[in-house]
Amino acid sequence: MKYVFLLVLLIVAGTAAAMGGVVALRFVDNMTQTPAITTGERVFAMPAGIVARGGTLILPREQRELAAKIPNPMKTSADSVAVGKERYVTFCAPCHGPEAKGGVTGPVATKFVPPPDLTNAQLQAGRTDGYWHSYIMAGGAVMPSYAEAMSSEEAWHIVNFLRSVAAR
Ligand code: HEC
Questions:
Q1: Ligand 1 atom nearest 113 alpha carbon
Q2: From CA 103, how far away is CA 69, in angstroms rounded?
Q3: Residue among 141, 102, 134 nearest 118 (CA)
Q4: How many angstroms separate the CA atoms of 153 and 74, rounded?
Q5: CA distances to 38, 46, 48 from 52, in Å
Q6: Residue nearest to atom 9 of ligand 1 (CA)
Q7: Taking CA atoms, which of 5, 75, 145, 160 is between 20 and 30 Å from 112?
Q8: What integer pLDDT is reported at residue 119 of this predicted model?
Q9: What is the C-alpha to C-alpha distance for residues 67 and 130, in angstroms, rounded to an integer?
Q10: Calpha distance 133→154 (Å, rounded)
Q11: Alpha-carbon gap, residue 52 to 57, rounded angstroms
Q12: Cβ < 6 Å from ligand 1: which residues?
């Protein structure tokens, strides 16, 4: 009786060990076999007859005048300004400074090509929302483009934030 018990114990333990081994083997193996595709490594052809949806047309810098005519689809509100401010602090404050005064505050601004004072009433009046949106998405002479970093919507929120800090 004792031997039967030991035999059963041995079989159970053996089966468990084998199953565990298979799982471990698979796991280890999967880790080495994972297809890792790096950015730009593979370009997938678009299936025939389909239309891309959800994308945003971003006009290049050279078409700023045209982009300037695009109306702001994002109605300004406390929420919009809050989102815009959050993105502004993340992406723009190093150069434009937390107060958007340009060249006077900010870790980069004071040592770099001084950016314009975005709160300036004259500048604010002379630029359309579309113009500034284009500046964010397509960049300027020195200023980098942020089309890769944020959505078009987020850029409109930033424009709304910039309008909220206009000098009066
Ligand atoms: C690397 C520094 C840098 C960063 C980061 C930066 N800017 Fe600029 N920005 C500039 C400079 C310099 C100019 C002056 C024009 C030029 O040289 O491109 C400028 C110009 C602008 C203008 C144009 C003002 C006008 O009407 O003539 C706007 C609007 C603006 N920036 C907004 C932003 C916003 C919003 C962000 C964040 C998404 C941002 N900038 C990030 C440096 C920067």
A1: 12
A2: 28
A3: 102
A4: 7
A5: 23, 9, 11
A6: 143
A7: 160
A8: 94
A9: 6
A10: 10
A11: 11
A12: 88, 91-92, 94-96, 108, 113, 115-116, 118, 123, 127, 132, 135-136, 140-144, 146, 158
pLDDT, tens only, 93-150: 988 988 898 767 767 777 777 889 999 999 999 999 999 999 999 999 889 999 889 9
Residue for token pair 């709304």: 160
Q: Nearest residue CA, atom 14 of ligand 1?
A: 115
The token duo for 146 is: 């942020």
Q: C-alpha angle 161/117/84, rounded to 5°?
A: 15
- Please report the atom of ligand 1 found closest to the CA of residue 158: 35
Nearest CA to ligand 1 atom 32: 136
Atom of ligand 1 nearest to the CA of 146: 38
Q: Tell me the C-alpha distance between 23 and 8, whole Å.
A: 23
Rg (CA), the chain: 28
What tokens appear for 166 in the block?
Answer: 């206009």
Nearest residue to 73 via CA among 147, 140, 163, 159? 159
Contact between 127 and 40 under an 8 Å Cβ cutoff? The reply is: no
Q: Output the six-digit token pair for 86.
A: 């959050």
Q: How many residues does the chain have?
A: 168
Cα–Cα distance, 90 to 161 (Å, whole number): 13
